[in-house]
Design goal:
Order of helices and strands: EEEEHEHEHEHEHEHEHEH
Strand order of the largest sheet: 1-2-3-5-4-6-7-10-11
Distance between the termini: 62 Å
Number of strands: 11
Strand content: 15-25%
Radius of gyration: 20 Å
CATH architecture: 3-Layer(aba) Sandwich
Number of domains: 1
CATH topology: Rossmann fold
Oligomer: single chain
Shape: globular
Structural class: alpha/beta
Largest sheet: 9 strands, mixed
Number of helices: 8
CATH class: Alpha Beta
Helix content: 25-40%
CATH superfamily: Alpha/Beta hydrolase fold, catalytic domain
């Protein structure tokens, strides 16, 4: 008989706990995802009630990354929400010896990781109604993954928040369309073939400059330079980008937070600590408008690719913009309107 996994202490310390989520094996052996949680605690007799006490948050990280953002979790638990973060298969806490870090050949495969996480949160995808609202938060590649998931699972999420989501290829949509057939062929013939990339580690350095000793990460889970890119993985990303370009029809309101500008990290300068050095933010802002009918785009001056890891002044703006949107969208339970309410 298989034992049911239990919540264990997490590497981040209290109040964080982690739960291993077994998934189906693949060609590299046993596969797991890992769910991290920080639960809000408030006495039932205290008034007023926390504004987000009926909210569950699910966060998904980006490429060559994992969840370590304590402050982001605290923002939500301070307002009464339960915060959960998912380290996807072959990332962070879920990476096992012998596995290719971050490798996936189809982003839809992450549906299994998300389904396992939601089930552990008490939200199985069985068509049942839930008393608690669900907020999805995705950073970079995680923003692409959750956008695709929200579009294909209408009615599940009550809000989607994207932190510099990777919604378009860095070399433009025209280039994506041109190279996609070649990458797709390469993915079919040689899925694990490595592709050239240039990463001098400047983004990691920019985060260290911006956060100093506050940036406490594990290099084995978040390397100085990003992981090796494989052809099947890049093809999966490009397929996701093409779906975004066609429109995802996300029903929930979407908030996309981005830096005000991009910078090309060819040589080090202090400018790299106040710009997105990973994505072309203007292209992402345009692509975000294809996500659904209710989309807010917030441009944060001086922000890094992860806006919540920026210097203090930009980070404060990012949290202020986030709070304004969250409280306007989720701060209170909305009353149902009859068709003739405002005739």
């Amino acid at each position: 008989m298989t034992e049911t996994p239990e919540w264990q202490p997490d590497v981040l310390g209290e109040p964080f706990r982690q739960l291993t989520l077994p998934l189906d094996d693949d060609s590299e052996g046993p596969v797991v995802a890992t769910l991290v949680r920080a639960l809000a605690h408030h006495e039932w007799w205290r008034m007023p009630r926390p504004p987000l006490e009926d909210v569950d948050v699910l966060y998904v990280h980006g490429w060559s990354d994992y969840f370590f953002q304590r402050s982001l979790a605290k923002y939500w638990t301070d307002r009464g929400a339960h915060f959960y973060a998912l380290d996807l298969r072959k990332y962070g806490r879920s990476l096992r010896p012998g596995q290719t870090p971050g490798y996936i050949a189809d982003l839809d495969t992450y549906d299994d990781d998300i389904a396992a996480a939601l089930s552990a949160m008490g939200r199985p995808l069985d068509g049942s109604k839930h008393e608690r609202r669900l907020v999805l938060i995705g950073h970079s590649t995680g923003g692409l993954v959750l956008s695709l998931w929200a579009g294909s699972h209408p009615g599940e999420a009550d809000a989607v928040i994207l932190n510099s989501p990777w919604l378009e290829f860095q070399l433009s949509a025209v280039t994506r369309v041109a190279v996609a057939p070649m990458v797709g062929l390469q993915a079919r013939l040689r899925p694990l073939e490595t592709l050239p990339q240039v990463d001098f580690g400047f983004y990691t350095r920019a985060q260290r400059e911006a956060r100093g000793a506050d940036l406490d990460v594990r290099p084995e889970w978040r390397p100085e330079q990003s992981w090796t890119v494989h052809s099947a993985w890049l093809n999966a990303i490009l397929v996701g980008h093409s779906k975004v370009a066609l429109g995802l029809g996300i029903q929930a309101p979407v908030c996309t937070l981005l830096s005000a500008k991009s910078a090309v990290p060819t040589r080090w300068s202090d400018d790299l600590t106040r710009a997105d050095t990973v994505l072309v933010v203007d292209d992402i802002a345009r692509a975000a408008l294809k996500l659904g009918e209710s989309v807010t785009v917030e441009r944060v001056p001086g922000a890094l690719h992860d806006v919540f890891l920026s210097r203090a002044d930009a980070r404060d703006v990012a949290y202020e913009r986030l709070d304004r949107w969250v409280m306007g969208c989720l701060g209170t339970k909305r009353l149902p309107l009859s068709p003739a309410t405002y005739d």
